[in-house]
């Protein structure tokens, strides 16, 4: 196949488009990390700002398997405050994403009934967290900064 074929010209345009998108990957990954961190950290702040209601919900609404309601409330709140910080800064980002994935799954499993819109959001958050687990925190992260300083 000769290099001046229409297919080659189209492929050259595609390669240029691909290079542009590759430059946007770090920004998109940082935005993903920031969004997910904000979602879960906000939930954790709500829990500590009204601890009595949090305990009430864990006793009557959330049926966390294998844990007492008080233990589940403490662990859930810790997870929603600690793991988002790791994720946001991209410091041990994969660990933060795995931890939040666990919190996300427990949140869905613990509810007897979940609204379809809420379930859709949990699925979206799970997919975004899976991207961080698989590809890491990206270039705009402390993980990358520490890796570069070796």
In brief, what are we looking at here?
With 150 residues, this protein is an all-alpha fold. It has one domain (29-148). Helices cover 80% and strands 0% of the residues.
Structure description:
This protein is mainly α and 150 residues long. It is 80% helix and 0% strand. It has one domain (29-148). The protein has helices spanning 6-49, 51-60, 69-89, 93-110, 116-135, 142-148. Helix 1 (6-49) packs across helix 5 and helix 2 (51-60) crosses helix 3 (69-89). It is elongated. The mean pLDDT is 94.
User: Mind describing the biggest β-sheet?
Assistant: none
What is the helix content? over 70%
Q: Strand percentage, roughly?
A: under 5%
Helix and strand element order: HHHHHH
Report how far apart the termini are: 45 Å
* Count of folded domains: 1
* Low-pLDDT segments, ≥5 res: none
Which features does this protein show?
mainly alpha, 150 residues, 6 helices
Helix and strand arrangement:
Layout: H1 6-49, H2 51-60, H3 69-89, H4 93-110, H5 116-135, H6 142-148
Helix pairs in contact: 1-3, 1-5, 2-3, 3-4, 4-5
